[in-house]
């Protein structure tokens, strides 16, 4: 997973911004309440916590965000975006569409 | 024209008799035949005529035929035609024959209100209690998706109306992020209500949006496969399963993916990603990339957001493909990007990935690799401006690449000369140049200085090494790593005082760093031995006192353990010509605990290593002869640890080989006596680590342990290793080996043997990779493999520009560098100095 996406910062962010974002996330997702999220956040921080690591990550990382394009899309949405419900009208259209499936 | 049409009409009717002209018996016969053939369309024509002749007799049969025809049409998806047939039935009977089917037809024709009304009518006629569960669900579905008031419902069935209102209100709450309210509304719906499925659906969606996937999945996975709610819940389940929900054989994936895009509020992607996914899964990776880049103008990008994730995917995916797939993908990407000129970001991302991919390619020359990365630096500068730090890191990376250690691929090497095997540097000159360029760009990077130092060490360039070490010590005077390296280097050069000083400072800076403590212990021992040989007793006593002060009380660490230090000091006294003091110290050391003979054996081996006077060696040998006379496996296990330690201190001594043989014979003698698994493990482990493993010894102890515990995963694993290694030339692993290891892994899981599990996991992965790569190599021979991509096949690679010719030149002629790669050790071994052992 892209460490910047996990931490919710821009790839151009500096050490301070990244550390602030990390501490904020760690406060929200403590190891007790969400160990998986905590692990993900800590791993992401370790990858980009200083300039050298950021550049090394940019230059040499080989991680893929998914196995297929759609998987990459789902992974990104899962980690970086809060699920937002469909509005009532959208839901209406969606359910009616399901009739003809 | 008219004549022509007339002819056509005649031709069309030719061979079809008019029903009016046929006798009733014949009509009946034809009706029966067509009904048998399920040709309801024709059958209804005969029945219509029969109806005209005898309505009372034939009308019920005509209605039944219409009904079957409607069913057939619905099955074929002819929903508008089915609706007309239902109209016919209603005209004939004055009421719908099957409300559910009619409703389905109406809903399919987007007439949701009429569909709901039809269901309500049927509900009224049949009565709620006579409906099956499926019929009840269909009624509820029709009512909900109508999203309109059904007057008959409110008047005739107030309970159903109330539940319907609850579902609608809950859906409104859900859409407005009010999940608790939505769930509260659902409390009005009973478990046996026709709306029970909707209650579950809304509960599942509330959990989904609240991020509780386990709860959401539990609710949404409970719908029957033929139900409407199953279809509605499908995309949500797919999202939660990360796109891994299995689809039925004839089910198209694209509509599902389109729904997911909409559910995740990405309607702009609903015609892009499903197609890209399809192409990717078909193996048309570059086509998938091209599709996305054609449809999305901002793709690829380095800017944060979803498109960056997709860009990363397309440029990183090649690292997770087989070599041949990745190679083809890189080439195809090159052509696509060449067509789309002036896309610097795409070129930058591509160049980086290409370079990383080709780094592992055995066919690339080192100057080519250097040029590829310099090309990347130019691309990067064009997009993001100059960055000295980034340039320095690229050159450091090249230094690492060219400085890697290679070893020759001689199959007998590991058997005949394993310990003396010394790797050679891949390209010393380019590695040195790259590190120097990196340091010129960023002179304060300690890590790169240390890497260059290690390179000189590996190349045995002591002058350059010492000069570099001085430079590093000047640049980083208070760095613990530099101090430790400097200290060890001084000890090697026999500059003991300076070395010990550096190591003391390194330990003071990081008291928890065990490696530096051990290095300091080794330095004290080496210095003491040196001064003992010069008969300078105050000096070596002083050093040994300092070593004892930092020593450890127990018997586990043979470098820092105080009993072992005491033994060493005793030997130094002997070497220094003070036999009496030496004997006293030795007796004191033995008093502290030599239950299993390890201290005596240690004293004997260390005495011989330090070349102590012969009387002492004879005295020590007499002591251990008693131990060897009646050995137990526990004693043998302790002695194996000592001899393994001695091998680390003085590798390659022939007297130690002789000593090993004596110990092996002793271990065999003890094999019949009771033995704990821990002791057997130590003995087998020792035997495997020997230059010439004693397979009889391994076999005896493994069998003994498996007799005691046939399901011991550790000894089954040893048995597997024994089977593999007892052949001179190791055979390649097979599926049978893999299965055997998996069985052992299952046993290790049962007993929670974590260390063994790690080991097994690694070995299983290696065999799986080996076996899959063998299969892939077989697959590569398939001439039909790339049939989908004929247009690319036509491209002549030879006609590319010179640079590309070099990049994409044919592979396979050079030596297999990847296979030869050997992990370089970053830390100089503390045990390598055979001149002054410790």
CATH superfamily caption of chain A: DnaJ domain
Beta-strand residue percentage of chain A: under 5%
Strand line-up of the largest beta sheet of chain B: 2-1-3
Computed CA radius of gyration of chain B, to the nearest angstrom: 42 Å
Average pLDDT number of chain B: 82
Our count of domains of chain A comes out at 1
What is the CATH class name of chain A? Mainly Alpha
Number of strands of chain B: 3
Number of E-type strands of chain A: 0
CATH architecture of chain A: Orthogonal Bundle
The first-to-last residue Cα distance of chain A is 34 Å
Question: Which class of secondary structure composition applies to the elements of chain A?
Answer: mainly alpha
Task: Report the C-alpha radius of gyration of chain A, rounded.
Answer: 17 Å
Low-confidence runs of chain A:
none
Structural class of chain B: mainly alpha
Subunit arrangement of the protein: heterodimer
Average pLDDT of chain A, to the nearest integer? 90
What count of helical segments of chain B does DSSP give? Answer: 44
Structural notes for this entry:
The complex is a heterodimer of chains A (101) and B (838). Chain A is mainly α and 101 residues long. Chain A has a single domain, classed as Orthogonal Bundle (Helix Hairpins), CATH 1.10.287.110. Chain A is built from 6 helices and no strands. In chain A, helix 2 runs antiparallel to helix 3 (35-48). The longest helix of chain A is centred in the N-terminal third of the chain and has 14 residues, at 15-28. Chain A is elongated and about 55 Å long. The mean pLDDT of chain A is 90. With 838 residues, chain B is an all-alpha fold. Chain B has a domain at 360-409 and 421-462 and 790-838. Helix content of chain B is 69%, strand content 1%. Chain B is built from 44 helices and 3 strands. A 3-stranded antiparallel β-sheet of chain B has the order 2-1-3. Chains A and B meet through helix 4, helix 5 and helix 6 of A and helix 10, helix 12, helix 14, helix 15 and helix 16 of B.
């Amino acid at each position: 997973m892209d460490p910047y996406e996990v931490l919710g910062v821009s790839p151009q962010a500096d050490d301070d911004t990244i550390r602030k974002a990390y501490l904020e996330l760690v406060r929200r997702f403590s190891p007790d309440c969400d160990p998986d999220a905590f692990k993900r956040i800590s791993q992401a921080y370790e990858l980009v916590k200083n300039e050298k690591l950021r550049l090394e990550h940019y230059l040499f990382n080989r991680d893929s965000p998914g196995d297929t394009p759609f998987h990459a899309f789902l992974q990104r949405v899962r980690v970086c975006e809060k699920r937002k419900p469909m509005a009532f009208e959208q839901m209406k259209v969606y359910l009616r569409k399901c009739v003809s499936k | 024209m008219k004549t022509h049409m007339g002819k056509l009409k005649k031709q069309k009717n030719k061979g079809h008799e008019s029903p009016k002209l046929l006798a009733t018996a014949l009509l009946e016969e034809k009706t029966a035949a067509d009904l048998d053939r399920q040709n309801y369309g024709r059958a209804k024509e005969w029945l219509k005529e029969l109806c005209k002749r005898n309505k009372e007799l034939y009308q019920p049969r005509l209605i039944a035929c219409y009904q079957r025809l409607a069913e057939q049409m619905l099955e074929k998806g002819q929903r508008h035609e089915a609706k007309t047939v239902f109209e016919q039935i209603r005209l004939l009977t004055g009421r719908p024959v099957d409300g559910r089917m009619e409703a389905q037809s109406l809903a399919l024709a987007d007439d949701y209100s009429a569909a709901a009304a039809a269901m309500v009518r049927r509900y009224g006629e049949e009565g709620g209690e006579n409906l099956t569960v499926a019929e009840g669900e269909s009624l509820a579905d029709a009512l909900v998706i109508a999203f309109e008031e059904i007057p008959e419902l409110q008047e005739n069935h107030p309970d159903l109306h109330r539940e319907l209102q609850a579902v609608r209100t809950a859906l409104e709450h859900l859409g407005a992020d009010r999940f608790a309210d939505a769930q509260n509304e659902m409390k009005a719906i009973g478990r046996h209500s026709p709306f029970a499925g909707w209650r579950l659906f809304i509960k599942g969606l509330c959990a989904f949006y609240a991020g509780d996937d386990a709860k959401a999945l539990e609710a949404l996975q409970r719908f029957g496969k033929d139900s409407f709610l199953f279809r509605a819940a499908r995309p949500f389940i797919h999202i939660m399963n990360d796109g891994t929900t299995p689809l039925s054989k004839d089910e198209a994936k694209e509509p599902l993916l389109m729904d997911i895009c909409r559910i995740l509020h990405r309607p702009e992607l609903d015609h892009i990603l499903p197609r890209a996914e399809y192409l990717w899964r078909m193996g048309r990776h570059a086509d998938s990339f091209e599709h996305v880049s054609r449809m999305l103008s901002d793709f690829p990008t380095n800017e944060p957001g979803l498109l960056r994730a997709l860009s990363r995917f397309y440029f990183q995916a090649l690292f997770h493909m087989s070599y041949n797939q990745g190679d083809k993908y890189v080439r195809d990407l090159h052509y696509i990007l060449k067509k789309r000129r002036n896309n610097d970001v795409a070129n930058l991302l591509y160049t980086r990935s290409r370079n990383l991919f080709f780094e592992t390619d055995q066919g690339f020359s080192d100057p080519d690799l250097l040029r590829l990365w310099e090309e990347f630096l130019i691309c990067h500068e064009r997009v993001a401006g100059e960055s000295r730090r980034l340039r320095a890191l690229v050159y450091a990376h090249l230094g690492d690449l060219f400085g890697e250690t290679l070893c020759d691929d001689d199959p007998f090497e590991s058997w005949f000369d394993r310990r003396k095997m010394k790797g050679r540097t891949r390209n010393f000159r380019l590695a040195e140049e790259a590190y120097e360029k990196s340091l010129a760009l960023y002179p304060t990077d300690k890590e790169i200085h240390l890497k260059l130092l290690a390179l000189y060490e590996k190349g045995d360039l002591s002058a350059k090494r010492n000069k570099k070490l001085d430079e590093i010590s000047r640049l980083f005077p208070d760095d613990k790593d530099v101090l430790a390296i400097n200290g060890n280097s001084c000890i090697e050069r026999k500059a003991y005082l300076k070395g010990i000083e550096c190591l003391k400072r390194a330990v003071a800076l990081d008291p928890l760093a065990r490696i530096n403590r051990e290095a300091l212990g080794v330095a004290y021992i080496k210095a003491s031995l040196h001064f003992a040989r010069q008969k300078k007793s105050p000096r070596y006593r002083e050093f040994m006192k300092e070593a004892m002060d930092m020593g450890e009380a127990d018997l586990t660490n043979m470098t820092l353990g105080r009993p072992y230090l005491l033994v060493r000091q005793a030997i130094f006294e002997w070497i220094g010509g003070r036999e009496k003091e030496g004997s006293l110290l030795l007796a004191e050391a033995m008093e502290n605990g030599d239950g299993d003979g390890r201290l005596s054996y240690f004293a004997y081996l260390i005495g011989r290593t330090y070349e102590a006077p012969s009387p002492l060696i004879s005295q020590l040998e007499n002591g251990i002869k008693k131990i060897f006379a009646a050995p137990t496996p526990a004693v043998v296990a302790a002695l194996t640890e000592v001899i393994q330690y001695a091998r680390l201190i003085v590798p390659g001594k022939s007297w130690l080989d002789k000593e090993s043989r004596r110990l092996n014979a002793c271990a065999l003698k003890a094999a019949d006596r009771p033995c704990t698994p821990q002791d057997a493990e130590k003995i087998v482990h020792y035997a495997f680590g020997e230059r010439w493993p004693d397979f009889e010894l391994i076999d005896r102890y493994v069998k003994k342990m498996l007799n005691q515990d046939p399901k011991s995963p550790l000894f089954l694993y040893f048995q597997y290793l024994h089977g593999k290694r007892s052949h001179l030339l190791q055979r390649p692993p097979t599926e049978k080996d893999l299965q055997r290891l998996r069985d052992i892994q299952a046993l290790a899981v049962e007993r929670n043997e974590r260390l063994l599990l790690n080991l097994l996991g690694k070995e299983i992965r290696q065999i799986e990779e080996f076996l899959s790569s063998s299969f892939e190599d077989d697959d590569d021979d398939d001439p039909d493999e790339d049939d989908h991509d004929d247009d690319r096949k036509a491209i002549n690679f030879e006609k590319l520009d010179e640079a590309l010719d070099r990049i994409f030149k044919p592979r396979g002629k050079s030596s297999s560098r990847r296979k030869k790669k050997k992990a370089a050790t970053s830390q100089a071994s503390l045990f390598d100095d055979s001149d002054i052992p410790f």
